[in-house]
Amino acid sequence: MTQTETSSLAPDAEGLARAAEILRGGGLVAFPTETVYGLGADACNDRAVAAIYEAKGRPSFNPLIAHFPSAEAAQAYVQWSDAADMVAAAFWPGPLTLVLPLRAGCGISRLVTAGLETLAVRVPAAPLARDLLERVGGPVAAPSANRSGQISPTRPEHVLAGLSGRIDAVVNAGRCDVGLESTILGLAGRPTLMRPGGIPREALEKALGRRVAERREAEAIAAPGQMASHYAPRAGMRLNAAEWQPGETRLGFGKVDCDLNLSRAGDLTEAAANLFEYLHRLDAEGAEVIAVSPVPHVGLGVAINDRLSRAAAPRD
Ligand code: TXA
Ligand code: MG
Question: Which amino acids does the record list as binding L-threonine (predicted)?
Answer without folding.
Answer: 35, 67, 122, 142, 182
